[in-house]
What we know:
Layout lengths: L4 E4 L6 H7 L9 H11 L10 E5 L4 E14 L2 E13 L8 H15 L4 E5 L5 H6 L3 E3 L4 E5 L8 H4 L2 E3 L6 E5 L3 H11 L9 E2 L3 H8 L4 E8 L6 E8 L10 E8 L2 H14 L4 E5 L5 H9 L3 E3 L14 E5 L30
Parallel strand pairs: 4-5, 13-14
Antiparallel strand pairs: 1-2, 2-3, 3-4, 3-10, 5-16, 6-16, 7-14, 7-15, 8-9, 9-11, 11-12, 12-13
Helix pairs in contact: 6-7, 8-9
Amino acid sequence: MSETFTLSECLPPDLPEIVELQNHLWQGGEKNLAYYHWKYRDNPYLDGRYSVLARDASGRVAGMAGVFGSPWECDGARFVLPCVTDTIVVPEHRNSPLFHRMLDEAARRLRAADSPWLLDFGDQGAIPAMLLRGWKMVGPWALSIHTRSGDPSRPGWADEPVRTGARSGVPISVVPGNDRTIAAMADVAVRIPDDGRVRVVRDFEYYAWRAANPLANYHYLVAGEEKPAGFLVGHRFVLDPDDGETPTSIVECEADDPDVKADLIDVAHDLLPGKWILTWAHDLPVEAQEVLARRGTEISEPTGRFDLDGPLPNLMLKHTGAVPRVPVPADLSDLANWDVRGITGRAWR
């Protein structure tokens, strides 16, 4: 007999139960409420009306599928892509169809609002079932994995505030995540030519919102002096110690010149904390690839097998049935139509 669930919006009276529910993902304590407000209430692109809360027949909370907004553009046209995140099903219902029911409900609401797509950062374990329910997979793509030696806490991040790039000769500085840094990042990003692929809108508003994530610990590098020539953002989950068993991710690296980008990657691998450094290897210039090769970094390439490609990044896309109102490539399931620089699930949690 099919289990009965009631699906609703996530409303203010539900917040205490939602905060408690999030402890199934991480033990965030009081940070859970701040994180929920940051991601859904304070999101500048979409409010939390499309998030789905599930209750079982007894009225107890059984799961949640969060839906937040992210800004995108293609050929000069800007639009919001709703993204699935923070999906939780309590242990006693994990063998039920609740996960898919919540995603179907989110897609139904978006279709009713004339929003044509729903995006997810693919959990490889769920991908086969999602494909059967009409989702399309974008990717996966290659991932660089560098195993560190020495002290994983890397006190040099604070002790070496400025270095000179070995290739470019450009100074690279450790900087705080303040408005000046955010403005420098936006200044670099706006100079990146639009090549017709779908890409994240990387402007001051987006960077300022991302930087406010209460569960993220960001590390920033900026290249250049008077005029910024590039930047890099490293990320660790705030609840994980620097010497813990989770990797540090380079969630974004951009520069005007490939030698500057290579130098940023090089310096980050010296100074970032953590036992492992992850970098998306898709779209990296040859110069940056040479830096990774010199450091003995492992590049994990897609194999086409779900059982082997689990750690690799990818996107999942669901067409809700609404008619697109912006010009986008006909085949959004083709990775060649996406500029994945600046896209990572870790940057949004």
